Amino acid sequence: MDMSIYESMLRVLNATSVEQLKEQTQQVIEMLGFKHYMYLLSQQDDMQQDNFRLFSVATYPDAWLNRYLEMDYHLVDPTARHIREHHYPLPWSNATFSEAKARKMYEEAKQFGISAGVTCPIVTQQKDLAGFGYSKPGDADKLFEESVKSLACGHLLGCYMHEAVIRLLNIKPKPHHAELSPREIQCLNLSAQGFADAEIAWRLDVNTRTIRFHLKNVRQKLGANTRLQMISRAIELNIIGL
Hints:
The chain is α+β, with helices and mostly antiparallel strands and 242 residues long. Helix content is 50%, strand content 12%. It is built from eleven helices and five strands. A five-stranded antiparallel sheet has the order 2-1-5-4-3, sandwiched between helices. 34% of the residues are buried.
């Protein structure tokens, strides 16, 4: 990594105001050869719900940000889905936006100079949903190699920006998950041991639908999207043991 870029990223980390943070981040983005960036933090793991609290810092065109929110594009945007489901950075290609609804959104984004770039999920201590993305005009496939080369610096920049945003905006952790019932913990433990829903139902002498209901409640309470994520978070929170 170029030392000048690293020193500029440290200025992002240590920014003393949101305005300075925006300016310093934009400077690094341009050093990496890109034009716009967007950082967001949602204190609600499922962005399809209407009650999430959203914090954002961005230099994307205001018209595009307003359009994105107006059209609920986060529901069809594959980069938003990537933030929800993965921890590794994603360089964009044209194939990233191959689904019909995503392609419509992408064609509109191009009009605002947003077509080639990278999306970086940010792992948070509170299990909030956070991400950092940056982009520029141009064909995503032709600029794919350039996007890949920026991954390490871009991902680190996103982590530094996240730390700065939390500090500058004094963002408090979201409330701890709701308590699990004894039956929910029982189902969770058996699921963690590798038993399928039908096997758990047989062991607890109930029907499979009841087990699915309990496990769905557990996922919601832990803010998990998948069975594996549910078990991982339960272990991290010391609800169940290894």
